[in-house]
Structure formats: C-alpha cells, structure tokens
What we know:
alpha+beta
Amino acid sequence: MVLHDIEKILKKIPEIENLATFYNDGTVFQTTFDKNKVNIPKLGKDLAEILSLFRNLQEKDNFKAYWKIVYDAVDVSVIILKLGEQSNLALFFKHEISDKVLQNVQIRGYIDKIQELIDIDLNTLIKKETAKKKDDLKELESQLDKKKIEKEKLVTKISEKDQIIKKKEEIIKEKSVKKEIKLLHKEKTKIDEEIKKIEKKEIPKIKRELKSKDEEIV
C-alpha cells in the first residue's frame, strides 16, 4: 500500500529522482534507491543525523516544531517531510524546485496516507520486537533452569565423592578421588558464574528492553 502511494507521487512529480520513508532512528521503511548502488542503512543513518541536529537546534533555541527540512544545491534538492512522531519522508529532486508542488491537494493526500500506513507499520514492528524479546527472556529462563539442574547434579556427585573418600583408606585412590572432586568443583563454579550472569545481567537487560518497547507502542 505504501509503495502504491509512493508510485503515485513519482508520477505526479516527475522531477523527483528518488525518495525514502524512514523512522527517526534511521531505519529505512521503503525507498526507490537502487540497493545495489546505494548503502541504504548508511542513507537512513545520515538522514537520522540530520533530524537529530535540527531537533537539538529546535530545543536549544525554543523553535516551533518543524514539519519540513529543505536542502537546495545547484543540481539537487532534498526535502524531508515530517510524517508522524517517528516517521519521515525524504524527497530527492533532480534540481532546485519550488515547494509549491508540495501544496498540491492530491500530493498531500498521498503523503497523509503514507504517514498513516508507516505509523501503523512502526507499531507492528515494535510489537514484533517486543514479542521477540519475550521469547528471548523465556529462552534465558529455560537455560537458567537447566543450569540449576546441572548444578544440583554436580552437588550430588560431589557429595557422593566425599563419601567415597571417607570410605577409602588407600592414599592413591584418595588422591584420585580428590582430583576428580576438584574438577567437579571447578565445573560447579563455572555454572555458578553462568547462572549469575543470566540472573544479574541478561534477564534484567531484556526486561528493561521490554519495558522500553511497551512505552514506545502508541
């Protein structure tokens, strides 16, 4: 649907060479640029940096919120239109052009429709990322349970070996068992560290990300 409206804009304004819809974080939603010739992620990052600079200027000098950023050169013009709170449309013209064309009622209709669709897709994207984070959290919790079971088995083995030492009178055998116990303790320490990492770092991190994603959903 978004692509269909983009094609209509290109037909109405043949002076447009390329365009791109993107989010504030630099994620490019759709673009007409040739992906084999243009580094799309880099393009999105550059556009996001431009927006960031203008937002900083706006906040610093208490300017009113912008809806359009224009760059004019001898042989090219770039117009960035603010669609929604998180979405934007960048138009790349072949040469300098009057922005009266953007006041065209039909063109504004296509742009408004793109805004609606891209914002809907952003919510879908956030929900998908949230669902993935929840799956990651479940996987980590499952790993944690498995590690705890492994730890319990090791503790049992260590206890069994301790009993063997008490029963064995031969020094050689005792040394062999002690060596094995030492290795088991080492393995237990490793699992303790893995459990600590999952409990202290990975699970809290994913929970923070989930909270952030929930706050982003409109």
